[in-house]
Amino acid sequence: MTSTATASNPIAEITNVTFGYPPAGAERPVLEDVSLSIEPCDFLGVIGPNAGGKTTLLKLILGFLRPQKGTVRIFNQLPSRMRHRIGYVPQHATVDASVPADVLDIVLTGRLKGSSWGPWFGRGEIDAAMAALEQVGIAELARRPLGTLSGGQRQRVLIARALVARPHLLLLDEPTANVDAHVEAGLTDLLHQLNRELAIVMVSHDVSFVSAHLKRVACLNRRISVHAADEISSDIIARMYGGDVRHVHHAHECALTDPGCKEGCEPTHAQASSGTTTSAAADPTDPQR
Asked: How far apart are CA 91 and CA 87, in angstroms?
């Protein structure tokens, strides 16, 4: 079987997948009849309410979970065999700042499987780690203790760790959560740069961010529908969340207005004719949250 992605051979192919956690399993699915293709250099956002199946979808792609129905293939093979071709930054990923390790040490942990020296690393692994740090723009911090870094710098370290094995697909679960606007803008520019070389799938609750910066959006609430980012509308969001959508108006000078990015994405206040950005929340009474 070939392991090279082409226009006719996507990186990932998810076909009619149904998955539920034990003990109910497929009788009470978290995902039902989900189909999705991820193409080379795709930039896909996954949005949806809490408990809608977003993180579960990423775990199926990684092969951490197996569907009760349907198939998941990475380069036409089982995900567990192709996991080394996927970089992953999980939700709330953290590294204990008290650990006596520098930035290079942390990034090198992403090469543990590929190192012929076990927990020790040769020149090839060190060169790969330095290349990943260069890719995310923090090579000069390689010997800095982790505890001295800002939140945005630590997030870049985690992305570098995911990139060090030179993946073809990068999965990010809420990478811009709990960061300020300045850090988010820097991460946005970084993701655009990375997307020139590899496919990216990003889970987010920020509807405005996803529709402004990404190429496609997968709306997921047990079932999935995929749209071009510029097709996302209030009606689509309302159907996915099963309720009304709140519109929050941001003036041009408001710090919460997405300013666009260096890649030419328009500010969010220019995305809608009324000058609004869209946010949506799951029903707090929903037992599936």
From this structure: 13
The token duo for 269 is 């206040």
Which of 13, 177, 10, 11 lies closest to 87 in space, CA to CA?
11
Q: How far apart are CA 274 and CA 96, in angstroms?
A: 44
| 31, 32, 37, 38: CA torsion to nearest 10 | -10
Q: Within the chain, how many helices (H) and strands (E) appear?
A: 7, 11
| Domains and their CATH numbers in the chain | 12-279 (3.40.50.300)
Consecutive H or E run containing 239: helix 234-241
Helix (H) or strand (E) run with residue 46 in it:
strand 43-47
Token output for 203: 């889970």
Sign of CA dihedral 186, 95, 62, 116: positive
Q: Mark the ranges of the chain whose per-residue pLDDT is less than 70.
A: 1-8, 93, 113-119, 243-289
Residues 269-284 have pLDDT tens digits of 433 332 333 444 444 3
Burial of 94 (0-12, 13-18, 19+ CB in 10 A): exposed
Amino acid identity, residue 57?
Answer: L
Characterize the bridge pairing of strands 31-38 and 86-89: unpaired
With H, G, I as helix, E, B as strand and everything else as coil, classify residue 150: coil
